[in-house]
Amino acid sequence: xxxxxxxxxxxxxxxxxxxxxxxxxxxxxxxxxxxxxxxxxxxxxxxxxxxxxxxxxxxxxxxxxxxxxxx
Amino acid sequence: xxxxxxxxxxxxxxxxxxxxxxxxxxxxxxxxxxxxxxxxxxxxxxxxxxxxxxxxxxxxxxxxxxxxxxxxxxxxxxxxxxxxxxxxxxxxxxxxxxxxxxxxxxxxxxxxxxxxxxxxxxxxxxxxxxxxxxxxxxxxxxxxxxxxxxxxxxxxxxxxxxxxxxxxxxxxxxxxxxxxxxxxxxxxxxxxxxxxxxxxxxxxxxxxxxxxxxxxxxxxxxxxxxxxxxxxxxxxxxxxxxxxxxxxxxxxxxxxxxxxxxxxxxxxxxxxxxxxxxxxxxxxxxxxxxxxxxxxxxxxxxxxxxxxxxxxxxxxxxxxxxxxxxxxxxxxxxxxxxxxxxxxxxxxxxxxxxxxxxxxxxxxxxxxxxxxxxxxxxxxxxxxxxxxxxxxxxxxxxxxxxxxxxxxxxxxxxxxxxxxxxxxxxxxxxxxxxxxxxxxxxxxxxxxxxxxxxxxxxxxxxxxxxxxxxxxxxxxxxxxxxxxxxxxxxxxxxxxxxxxxxxxxxxxxxxxxxxxxxxxxxxxxxxxxxxxxxxxxxxxxxxxxxxxxxxxxxxxxxxxxxxxxxxxxxxxxxxxxxxxxxxxxxxxxxxxxxxxxxxxxxxxxxxxxxxxxxxxxxxxxxxxxxxxxxxxxxxxxxxxxxxxxxxxxxxxxxxxxxxxxxxxxxxxxxxxxxxxxxxxxxxxxxxxxxxxxxxxxxxxxxxxxxxxxxxxxxxx
Lengths: 71, 716
Description:
heterodimer, A: mainly alpha, B: Helix Hairpins, elongated
């Protein structure tokens, strides 16, 4: 069993919800894929890119709300 | 027994210490390379690495400092070439790597059971090993031993990870940590928390504004009950009626003011009402007339003032001319006096003076004559007839008396002349003055005439010659003043009415401000229900979910990493301890263990465990490093598929006893693990040859030569 398979198995022990398992597996696949391309830095860049996208979405929504509040 | 790749054969040419091709047939389980330092033993071992991984073994990331600026090809060779044959069961793997000088290109290929391929990645997958792991778990390098025993936990951890084949998982964890997802999440949390703080601040600010608006309204006469929509509606009706009444009475037109139905319309009404109010204020007829009259008054007062200035100046000039006429007469009379009266008298007087002057001149000459002669004055002859003069002194005395008399006669005549001359000059000056006054009076009269037409324009009527403009202006200004007094009362009354309307508009504005602010506060209190707020909540939730997912994955990786580390260490535990016990042979701490959580090598005595770094000397630490490497190297649970280990000069820092013990350990390595060892120490060589019971192959290296390069010889 590869490391990735062991990790997914470990995750599925604690997460029983199928949809959630799918999401985690997908992230896992992306992480290992990026790692194979270029080591830890590639993993960092992948996660940073993803988290920044979500953060930007939050920031935009936050700005719109503050505008509505008259700020 | 695990089936792994064993080295069978290697041919090296033009690689580092090698120039000519040399082939090593090494299918035996124990291979010894011995010879002096610098004879090419290490080049042989490194050729195996290069054959497997190429130039990557010299990269910085590998962590072997001595590989920096590494030259692969021997300077005397046109090509560096390594060919290796490995065997695993029935499988034969041939690897060929080259680096050519001319084309400056490198070549690589491998054949698995005759099937050729050039994909390095495939080879690594097949061997199950990356360059970094090779250095730690196949080829024991002194730097790896040092890293295992350093005080820096991270370096120890990395080294141990490499030994255990866990670098990939550790690197992924590092990549996840490096992304600092929790920091981003924390930032979002802070921002989200600030929404509440800002919300409260805005509400407080609006409440303060409401209080201020109420206080202002109350100062203007509102009561606290007036700040309602009903009251605002009532106020709108009052204002509208007042504005319309005023407009009708004044004959003015204002914009249609529709009565509002809600607060929003009331706001618009208030703005329109204020505009209408301004229009009425500016355009009310009485005020307009008052302004016109005031402008007219100001204009006429200015004309009057200027006219008076011109007139006063003219009158002054005329007065001055009249005064001269009265005292001395006009220019003709003055000229007549000068010509017919004063000038003849002056001439006559001057003639008399001249007569006396002539006589006085003769006497003076005579006096000078007598006073100038040097001979005795009593014997002089007359200068005219030359008859003797009896007493010239007496004559001189009479001459002087005569001159004194003439001087007395001349004094009043001179005074008279001076008097006439002064009078003539005075009268001349007066003539000039009168001429000047005439000129000025003419100019001033012309200016006055010009201003008269200005006055006519201002008055809007003609001023006849018989009329006095000053009086006309005074009368006109009087009329304006009367009209202004009448208008003032009307304007005051109008303004009072307008002021009442303005106050009402202002009060309405205060009521509306309070109502608007209250509505805004209500909206803010319900902000959590609006879509925009929900969007922020949802986006934060997405962020949190992602962070939680990544953290779950990180935890799972760490769990697997720990489990794997523990399992591998557990599997190699006995082997490591046994090797250390044999190698170091310490009585105080005979055993060795690795703490998989703290990545620390521990010296063990019964139940007592202390960090090896705190008690071991350099030789013991090297023994510890060797034990860990060999213990793990021979363990069956290792992840890669290479069935050989390489020990390059392993007896450094070891004393004779340790070296003997090392040979014992080498003897204990299982048969399925091929050992390649190099040494420059004859003691170790002799011990290996005499005590290693495995089937051996020995290659002896003679001193390296510039022409031939490495000179290995197989020793039977």
